[in-house]
Amino acid sequence: MALVVGLTGGIGSGKSEALAAFARHGAATMSSDQVVRELYLRDDVRAAVAERFGPAVLDAAGRVDRAQIGARVFSDPVEREWLEGLLLPLIEQRFQAWREQQLAAGSPLLVHEAPTLFEAGREDRYDLIVTVTAPGELREQRRPGASERMAHQLPEAEKAGRSDEVYENTGSLDQLDDWVAALVARLT
Q: What's the whole-model pTM score?
């Protein structure tokens, strides 16, 4: 029986590094951020985004400028809701297809990195939820501008309180890797 894990955490917490560690230790992994990058390459998604936000959100090559979009949606809840309404159902389709493919392949551990897992209300699709957290100052050092964006997400303490496993990522990448290795060993 496969275990499906939701991996979340705030901007700059280290969840992408944790996802890479899960992959190194044998888990099948999927990144919502990577899926969004791929979705932005689709003609229908690009067209919808350009129609909503104007042609200035496309770069010279006609690609979606993620920084421009981020600046718009993180300062305007209406625009953020519109973008989530466009992208979240497409991410969900991709997740379901990936999950079915991995289950059919017999993968014992599936880990899906979903930054807005709780905000999207999708806890029910996971057997276990892992949150990677770090103090705000450290997240801001790792990702300048993180605090502004974090203001639009659930507080770290609430994410941690709603999770099955929590890792406070204040140490080295090796320490994070060791923690993930131990968790994978326990789960499998």
A: 0.90
Residue 137 has φ and ψ, to the nearest 5°, of -65, -40
Total residues belonging to the chain: 188
**pLDDT (tens digit, 9 = 90+) per residue, 88-102?**
999 999 999 999 999
Write the Ramachandran bin of 48: left for phi over 0, alpha for psi from -120 to 50, otherwise beta: alpha
Report residue 34 CA to chain centroid gap. Answer: 9
Q: Does residue 168 contact residue 9 with C-beta atoms inside 8 Å?
A: no
Q: Which residue has the tokens 């951020």?
A: 33
Q: Looking at domain 3-187, which of 3.40.50.300, 3.40.50.720, 3.40.50.2030, 1.10.3720.10 is its CATH number?
A: 3.40.50.300
Q: Which residue has the tokens 């899906």?
A: 112
Report the amino acid identity of residue 31.
S
